[in-house]
Amino acid sequence: MDQIMPEAALDKVACLERVRQSDEEAARALVRELYPLVIKIVRSHLPRRTDEEDLAQMVFAKIFAHVEQYSGAVPLEHWVSRVAVNTCLNQLRSEKCRPELRWADLNQDEAETLEKVAARAKEPDPFEQLAARELAHKMLETLSPKDRLILTMLDLEERSVGEIRELTGWNASLIKVRAFRARKKLRKQFAKILKEERR
Amino acid sequence: MKPDYWKRLAGTARRVPVEPAREMPFGFDTRVIADCRAQREGDETVPWARLLRGALVCASLIMLLSLAMNFQSLKEGDPGPGAIADSAIRMSLYP
Predict the structure, then answer these.
(1) Which CB contacts under 8 angstroms, 24+ apart, belong to B76-83?
(2) For residue range A112-137, what is the model confidence (pLDDT) as tens digits?
(3) Among candidates A185, A189, A132, A176, which has minimal Cα distance to A150?
(4) Residues of B in contact with A32 (CB under 8 A)
(5) Do A126 and B6 touch (CB under 8 A)?
(6) Cross-chain Cβ contact B31/A57 below 8 Å
(7) Which of A51, A97, A138, B4 is the most exposed place for a label (fewest CB within 10 A)?
(8) CB distance from A135 to chain B under 8 Å?
(9) Which B residues 9-48 touch A at CB under 8 Å?
(10) 3-state DSSP call for residue A50?
(11) What distance in Å separates residue A31's CA from the closest CA in chain B?
(12) What separation in angstroms does the CA of A27 have from each of A52, A130, A173?
């Protein structure tokens, strides 16, 4: 039962079958194999005040709790990604407070980045790129969990609508409509913040 | 046409190089397995916990019902010291 599995080529289907039979060694091997995929998704959609490892652990707990539901119709990675995205979405939903972003909430780097973005200044250096990413995430935090998830995947990860559809199970038109409305909300926010700044 | 600041910001944010996937922290798999085991054991105890809770509710209801049914007799069967004294006086006055 407890045979050692090689790290290089893990037979995921066989491993999953053993997990279904409560083989803990197989479960460990599967965690090791899927960890990079899960942590990547968790990091992209991590809510504030949530530890990425805790969220990754929640994802794995869900995977093992619902392992019987995996039929094998899609690759295991797709199913795992979907579970991870849904877990992140639920976690984002539990974050009740979505405060509106104001000029005063921005730190110096973010304020400078915003000014540069508005003025379309020179090529951003790596430091400014990091500040831009922070600011983008701050702005996304003001949206509803679904809108935030969609825009993160579309605009920050450059995923296609088809990919998002596969990961979330939502239909393409819903994704497009939500993305359109969310971008509109963000544009309004930008206008408001910049107006505050110019006062 | 108004400039799309979000598009520009997202474009700049995307330039941040993707962080390479970090190694799995030591003991993470053990924590996951322990968590799953605890959950499974928790699930197994749920039917018993429900049964026990049901039994407790039933027992409480039966106790309350029996108290309500015997309230009158319990009240009458426990005369206070005043009532005893009153009855003794009455007996001595009207034998």
Answers:
(1) none
(2) 877 777 776 667 788 888 888 888 99
(3) A176
(4) 24, 29
(5) no
(6) yes
(7) A97
(8) yes
(9) 9-10, 12-16, 19, 21-22, 24-25, 28-33, 35-36, 39
(10) coil
(11) 6
(12) 20, 37, 38
- Compute the distance between CA of residue B7 and CA of residue A187 in angstroms, rounded to an integer: 9
Token pair in block for residue B31: 């924590």
Does A31 lie at the interface with B, CB-CB under 8 angstroms? yes
Q: How far apart are CA A189 and CA A186, in angstroms?
A: 5
Residues of B in contact with A187 (CB under 8 A): 2, 4-6
Instruction: Please write the tens of the pLDDT for every residue from A69-95.
Output: 898 888 899 999 999 999 999 988 887
Residues of chain B contacting A28 with CB distance shorter than 8 Å = 29-30, 33
Could you tell me the two tokens for B80?
A: 């206070």
CA distance A109 to A128: 7
Residues of A with Cβ-Cβ distance to B2 under 8 angstroms: 187
How far CA A102 is from CA of A105, A109, A142, A149, B78, in Å, comes to 5, 15, 11, 22, 73
Is the predicted ipTM greater than 0.85, yes or no?
A: no
- Residue B70, SS3 per DSSP: coil
For chains A and B, count residue pairs whose Cβ atoms are closer than 8 Å: 95
**What is this structure's pTM?**
0.71
Question: What is the token pair recorded at B42?
Answer: 């928790």
Say whether pLDDT at A7 is over 60.
no
